[in-house]
Design brief:
Blueprint (H helix, E strand, L loop, with lengths): L16 E4 L6 H18 L5 E6 L5 H15 L2 E7 L2 H6 L12 E5 L8 E8 L2 E2 L3 H12 L11 E2 L2 H12 L9 E5 L9 H7 L3 E5 L21 H8 L5 E5 L6 E4 L4 E2 L1 H9 L6 E5 L4 H8 L3 E5 L3 H11 L3 E3 L5 E3 L9 H13 L4 H7 L4 E2 L3 E4 L5 H13 L8 E5 L4 E5 L2 E7 L5 E8 L2 H19 L1
Parallel strand pairs: 2-3, 2-4, 3-7, 8-9, 8-10, 13-14, 13-15
Antiparallel strand pairs: 1-5, 4-5, 5-6, 10-11, 11-12, 15-16, 17-22, 18-22, 19-20, 20-21, 21-22
Helix pairs in contact: 1-2, 1-4, 5-6, 8-9, 13-14
């Protein structure tokens, strides 16, 4: 108690709040996050009463819950506490009631795929993401506030976990996957809290790796977008025992789907899922393959938008879209579901296609074949990253004489330059002092050409 507001403003990020426990997320700061969030919720929803709170497997998550509850209670709202759950269960709590109690906003305590010393908060108000300027303003308000919030961690317990499990089981009880077996890697995150019971009740044969939640992540880092974290599940698939593998991040809002031959990224899965949605409108981020946009536009509508789970949730609602995807495995079903990113729900939509006879490997092979680089990050400074992008936009208006011919420039999020045989992206990360780049072309060699052209131009700007 009584700590000063010693913190880095950088913990207040575009999509959520994230920082190191005690060093940045200390008692004073976390209580005030709860307090100022509750005040904002009461301003937006005048009759607000309840905030639902859940937490991930990190060792300090229960402590953060107590501090957060003290701030929420001090503001005059009450906490519906669901305990250890995946982030999608926390989101789900916004759409159901608990014996007549309904939440008006939610906070998930999670460090997602960050190292064990990190934690943070993913926040919603009235079913919509709390992000961007709302988070930045909260940070400014907290920095100016020297008051002390007393302890009061009173909460009302709710069983969101079993309500969610029952919902998933009920919606996929038609699955008949006899003769097939699947392997799942929970990465010692919170997917294991709900996954086994759902699989057992649906009579789906399974083998689960690293099921026990453990915030020290003793087996591997819980980030399925990093190929190094998929070594164990690939070994299982190589045995030939399993038809497909599924891997999750720390809080189970991102998924990786693997066959014995392929790792299907989020943009490819968007193609597969959208084929079974009537007249689909699909939102993709700027890192998604052009193959995704061209393919979906042949039978529906694909919209390129900003990276970030909060951005995509807002855009889904604005466009009344059916689905959205990030390459990293955030998948948002607004068709037969609620429009937020849920790796557990996505698992069973993927299994549903298998049940219907969909051949993932064959369909993937039938798509136009391109080479896409992984994300390549360039370290800059927090102060300069957006200016560099602005300068790059200007430079591209009058590129060097020997520069590859440019067909189009898309600036919805950074700079995506469309060339004759592919594209290159350079954007400023909203959460780190880095530029994020990705390149795609019909061959690996051509992608390298586009990479060198854009990086060389970038280097002249950076000086």
């Amino acid at each position: 108690m009584g700590e000063k507001n010693i913190m880095s403003a950088s913990i207040f990020r575009e999509y959520d709040i994230r920082g190191i426990f005690q060093e940045e997320l200390n008692e004073n700061i976390v209580k005030k996050i709860g307090y100022y969030f509750a005040k904002e919720l009461m301003a937006k929803v005048p009759d607000a009463t309840f905030v639902s709170v859940g937490y991930d497997a990190r060792l300090h998550s229960p402590q953060l819950k107590d501090w957060l509850a003290s701030g929420i209670n001090h503001a005059g709202l009450e906490v519906l506490h669901m305990g250890l759950v995946p982030t999608p269960v926390n989101y789900f709590s916004n759409f159901v009631d608990f014996d007549g109690l309904e939440c008006d906003g939610s906070i998930m305590i999670t460090g997602s795929h960050n190292p064990p010393e990190y934690n943070g908060f993913k926040i919603t108000i009235n079913k919509d993401p709390f992000f961007g300027e709302q988070i930045y303003k909260m940070g400014r308000d907290i920095l100016k506030d020297d008051s002390v919030i007393p302890d009061n961690n009173t909460t009302i317990e709710i069983d969101a976990k079993n309500k969610y499990i029952n919902y998933i089981v009920n919606h996929f009880k038609h699955l008949k996957l006899e003769g097939k077996k699947f392997v799942f890697d929970c990465g010692n995150g919170v997917a294991g809290v709900v996954l086994r019971e759902i699989l057992d009740r649906l009579n789906i044969k399974h083998h689960i790796l690293f099921e026990q939640p453990d915030g020290t992540f003793p087996n591997h880092h819980p980030d399925p977008s990093d190929e190094h974290t998929l070594i164990d599940i690939k070994k299982e698939l190589d045995t030939g025992t399993f038809d497909f593998g599924f891997a999750y991040d720390g809080d189970a809002d991102r998924i990786a789907l693997l066959s014995q031959e392929n790792n299907f990224k989020g943009d490819i899965l968007a193609i597969f899922f959208s084929r079974f949605i009537e007249n689909p409108t699909v939102i993709g981020e700027v890192k998604c393959s052009q193959v995704m946009y061209d393919t979906i536009n042949s039978y529906g509508r694909a919209i390129m938008y900003k990276t970030g789970h909060s951005n995509l949730k807002v855009k889904i609602k604005e466009e009344k879209a059916s689905f959205a995807a990030e390459v990293s495995g955030h998948l948002f079903f607004n068709d037969r579901y609620f429009g937020y990113d849920d790796a557990i729900y996505a698992t069973f939509r993927a299994l549903e296609l298998i049940d219907d006879g969909f051949d993932y490997d064959k369909e993937y092979a039938a798509l136009p074949q391109v080479f896409s680089t992984p994300e390549i990050n360039i370290t800059v400074t927090e102060d300069t990253k957006f200016k560099i992008i602005d300068d790059l936009k200007l430079a591209l208006q009058n590129p060097p004489a020997d520069f590859e011919p440019i067909k189009d420039i898309i600036t919805v999020d950074g700079v995506r330059v469309i060339f004759d045989k592919g594209w290159g992206l350079i954007r400023a990360s909203n959460t780190t002092p880095k530029l994020v780049t990705r390149f795609e072309a019909d061959t690996k060699e051509q992608a390298k050409v586009y990479e060198e052209e854009l990086i060389n131009l970038l280097n002249t700007i950076k000086g």
